[in-house]
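Q: How would the structure tokens look for this protein?
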Amino acid sequence: MRVRYLAALLAATVFSVACGGVTDPSQNKTENFPGTITPVALGGTGTAQIPFNISNGGEYTVKVATMTPTFNNYFEAILSLGCGGAVVQQNALGIVGSQVLSGPVVQTGGYCVTIVDAYNTMTAVENFTVTISHP
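A: Here is the predicted structure in token form.
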């Protein structure tokens, strides 16, 4: 019994390393992405998409670090598998300066963060920076 347990543990370890394994969150890379949202009232879509790639298992966090001019209302943040793909996580009460999304990586590959003026409260074109920490 003990030999089978050790063999299974060794196989799982080899499989994990061969597939890239899981990255400790303290070893994540942090990327800053600038973007712009033009509100619907000003002829825009009220959304912005930020595509990025995750190459390893682990955890991610997304923060909308800044919005200029200052925006003091809620917005929606969505993480999906690729832009327009299956939704992984959604937060309809995002606030500038706070973490808006976080969780485990469900698969490696292309992801997309979409920021939405879901409540049509933006009154000016908003320039923003999204900070994404991921393996």
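Residues 22-134 form a domain with the Jelly Rolls fold (CATH 2.60.120.380).

Residues 59 and 85 are 19 Å apart (CA to CA).

Upvote if useful.
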